[in-house]
Write a structure and sequence with these properties.
Elements: E1 5-11, E2 17-24, E3 27-37, H1 38-41, E4 51-56, E5 65-70, E6 73-77, E7 82-92, E8 95-96, E9 106-119, E10 129-137, E11 155-163, E12 165-176, E13 186-196, E14 208-209, E15 216-223, E16 242-249, E17 252-258
Parallel strand pairs: 7-14, 8-15
Antiparallel strand pairs: 1-2, 2-3, 4-5, 5-6, 7-9, 9-12, 10-11, 10-13, 13-15, 16-17
Length: 260
């Protein structure tokens, strides 16, 4: 699995608390740190953490369990399955059209939000599910945004229940035909959090999110550029001035300029 070594540090000074650092061969720094106080496991425990054993799977789910000793009792702390969530947002159409000249109208686009869920831990737990709460913000880096889901609303909040595999949802939005800036991309932001649901096949054990999951990602949406067949835009702007009449009124110069 991902975790090839578990290191434990126990200190009675921490008021009966065990501290767990998780690391692997690919990272010199700990990937995850967890502190478990005896009072959070069961009230009244004394000398929680005075002995530890973490080399066996005692629950039969192929995950390493931790046996923790305290005065008069031994407790079994089970490892939880870990899920990796990858996100992707695509658009239809893939670029914003700049051909329309009706500035009072809007154009419709659709964002397809996808979550790819995979299991990191090598366990034998069958069905794993979780709830994902996510927020999609259009043109997130600008104060005056150029797209909206409903008038005056550029942010969408939603909740979806996921299992292992791919889950996608589509969300329509609108863009004005004549935005104040049609050169720079719309930088749309997706943020999410995950809450594991109890598994009936693992005595209500719930999965947790892998720390490597990117919970905040930007997915740009570009404007079309009419640059010819080679799709390379070259500036070639020329302005000719024709001063057809020139005169002076007092201290003020008056001239007529024609721009063809």
């Amino acid at each position: 699995g991902l975790c090839s070594s578990l290191c434990f540090n126990v200190s009675i000074i921490c008021a009966s608390t065990i501290c767990i650092w998780v690391s692997n061969h690919y990272h010199s720094q700990p990937l995850h740190f967890q502190r478990i106080a005896g009072s959070s496991v069961s009230p009244g425990l004394q000398y929680f953490g005075q002995s530890l054993s973490s080399s066996q799977d005692l629950s039969g789910d192929s995950l390493t369990d931790i046996a923790v000793g305290s005065r008069g009792s031994v407790l079994l702390l089970r490892s939880r399955p870990v899920l990796l969530v990858k996100t992707q947002v695509t658009y239809s159409p893939s670029k914003i059209s700049t051909e329309s000249t009706d500035c009072k109208a809007t154009k419709r686009n659709e964002a397809k939000v996808c979550f790819q869920v995979s299991k990191v831990t090598k366990d034998n737990i069958g069905v794993l599910q979780a709830t994902i709460n996510y927020t999609l913000t259009l043109d997130a880096t600008r104060l005056r945004y150029r797209a909206h889901f409903t008038p005056n609303t550029r942010q969408l909040l939603n909740t979806v229940r996921v299992g292992l595999g791919l889950m996608c949802l589509s969300h329509p939005f609108e863009i004005p035909n004549c935005p104040e800036d049609s050169l720079s991309s719309l930088s749309n932001e997706l943020q999410f959090s995950m809450t594991g649901l109890p598994s009936s096949s693992a005595d209500s054990l719930s999965p947790i999110l892998d720390p490597g999951s990117g919970q905040r990602t930007f997915f740009p949406l570009d404007f079309e550029r009419q640059c010819g067949a080679d799709e390379k835009c070259v500036d070639n702007l020329k302005v000719d001035f024709n001063f057809s009449r020139y005169g002076q009124r007092g201290l003020t110069c008056v001239c007529t300029v024609s721009v063809p």
